[in-house]
Structures are given as structure tokens and as C-alpha cells.
Amino acid sequence: MERLEILKTYKMYIGGKFPRTESGRFYAPEVNGKAIGNICLSSRKDFRNAMVAARAAQSPWSERTAYNRSQILYRIAEMLETRRAQFVEEMILQGGTKKAANKEVDISVDRLIHYAGWCDKYQQIFSSVNPVASSHFNFSVLEAMGVVFLFAEEQSSLLGLVSMIAPIVVGGNTVIALASESKPLCAVTFAEVLNSSDLPGGVVNILTGNRKELMRHVAMHMDLNAIAYCGSEAKEVKQIQEESTSNLKRIRLYDKKWSAAVSQDPYLIRDFSEVKTTWHPIEHIGASGSGY
After folding, report:
1. Quick one: 9-281 is in which CATH superfamily?
2. CA distances from 82 to 43, 46, 279 (A)
3. Beta 226-230 vs 250-254: how paired, if at all?
4. What are the residue ranges spanned by the domains of the chain?
5. In 3-state terms, what secondary structure has residue 259?
6. What kind and span of H or E run contains 142?
7. Cα 255 vs. chain centroid, distance in angstroms?
8. Are 263 and 256 in contact (CB under 8 A)?
């Protein structure tokens, strides 16, 4: 007897859990006329739930030591490597070749390790001791912005997603990512990798669904700090820029070739950081050794 094919249901990842969309809606992307999975069609309520989870996780995550964040990113890379076969299979299901899929997984693993190495180094590159005309030390250091929403690369199933999530969380931010609508399988499987690593729930949240449906809700949300948009759709860019002015969200636009080495520079960490400047009086030491 011929078996009935059972398509996998790919759920969202919010607050360290895998809920189905509250709306009960789903879609089934097709490759060559064949459905490749049942994918949640995220709603406005799902986005709000992700915001609550990301905001709650942001402060504890930013207070982690740089060394600990580095350990966690390295662990994510290890877990991704161990599940290589599944990612390759899903990329082939989405229309890719085996050679291209293996290359994308290789670069994704290497990129996570690359940013793990930057966790305890980017402050030395971008921070400074500033010259001032008074008896003070003046320091400028980077701090996390808060919660960042990522419209992930549409044409990249895994690499574009990883290449943006990594620098955002390295800087102490939390992230809500909307996966590629046409190639969503690896994004949800990557959420399974995150869940089995040491990353606290809520630091990375992954939604699936329609970009246009969620864009206005994301752009106008008053508790969101920044938006990272990957793509080149002029109408979408204009909408985000205009509707994000309600709370002056920071907008960063990316249209990169993610496999290139220049797509992993530390400036992506700085893109989602704020500069904090601290003044500290210089203590003068008198002849007796006491301060005055």
C-alpha cells in the first residue's frame, strides 16, 4: 500500500518555545509544483508575543559577560554543524543543489564562530578615550540598543538569517526575525538548533509568514528599537522609513552578497549599538600621597 505523505509542520519560535500561530493559519510553499511543508502564517498577535519575550530577555542578555556570549555563539555553531545533513536536505527541498547547500552550511557555521570571536573584541575597536579640556577622563563605549526586528533575506534560507542574527545578539540586543517566505524551512530548523544550545529563551525569536502583512505593525510598534531590512524592494523600504518615525526607530538596510567575506565585518555589530559617554574626574595626588 502506498503511504500518504505527511508534510512537516514548521512552527514559530517565541520565548524559547515552539507555538503554532494564534490565528491557526498556515501556508504551504511549493517547489516545482510540490508542497514542501506546512508553515505558520504569523499574525500581529504572534509578533506582539515575540516582542514581549524579546523585551523580557534583553536586559539579562546584555548583562552577560562578553566571554559568555562568545561561548554561546560557539555552541550554536557546534549544534548547527552536527545537524548539517538536515539543513542540506531542506535546502535541496527548497530548490537548491547539494553543492550549494553544503557551501551555505559551511559559511553559516564559520560565520557564527567568526562573531563568537568578536564578542570580547568589538568594544576595544569602537570604544575610545576622548580628549577633553578639563580634569576628567572621558570614555565612549557601545551599549545595546534593545530589541531589533529583522526582515531576513528572502533569497537565502540560512546564511542571510545567521549573518544578521549573530552581530545583533553579539552586541547584547535581542532579535525577532521574519524568515524568508519562499524558503522558510532552514529558519525554523535553525530555531531548533538555538533551542538545543545555551541561548536563553527570548534572545532570538523567529516568525514565519508574509512580510507585507506584518510590515506596518512592525514599523509602528512603539517598543521596538530598530529594524534591519534585507532586500531591495523600494516600496517596502519607503514604508518602513515613513512609518518608523513614530518612535524614531533606527533603520538599517542591507542588500549584500552574504557569502562574501565583507558581509561579516564588525560594523554590523556597531549598527545596532548606542554610544554611552562617561565623564570621570581625575583625582589629583598631593605630595603627601593623599588626594585633593
Report:
1. Aldehyde Dehydrogenase; Chain A, domain 1 (3.40.605.10)
2. 32, 30, 48
3. parallel
4. 9-281
5. coil
6. strand 136-144
7. 16
8. yes
Q: Tell me the three cell numbers of residue 263.
A: 558581509
Q: What is the pLDDT of residue 129?
A: 83
**Nine-digit cell string for 29:** 510553499
Residue 71 burial (CB count, 10 A): 15
Length of the chain: 292
Q: 229 exposed, middle or buried (CB, 10 Å; 0-12, 13-18, 19+)?
A: buried
Q: Determine contact, residues 172/61, Cβ cutoff 8 Å.
A: yes
- Which of 238, 178, 243 is CA-nearest to residue 46? 178
Nearest partner of 145 among 250, 243, 265, 230, judged by Cα: 250
Q: Which helix (H) or strand (E) holds 238?
A: helix 234-243
SS3 284: coil
Which of 133-142, 148-157, 206-215 comes out lowest in average pLDDT? 133-142
Q: What is the pTM of this model?
A: 0.91
Pairing assessment for the beta strands 9-10 and 273-281 based on DSSP bridges: unpaired
Strand 174-178 and strand 147-151: pairing? parallel
SS3 category, 13: strand
| C-alpha dist (Å) from residue 266 to 126, 130, 186 | 9, 21, 25
What secondary structure letter does DSSP report for 182? Answer: S
Residue for cell digits 531548533?
A: 192
Spell out the residues 6+ positions from residue 107 whose beta carbon is closer than 8 angstroms to its own.
159, 258, 259
pLDDT tens readout for residues 50-106: 999 999 999 999 999 999 999 999 999 999 999 999 999 999 999 999 999 999 999
Distance between CA atoms of 20 and 87, rounded to whole angstroms? 22
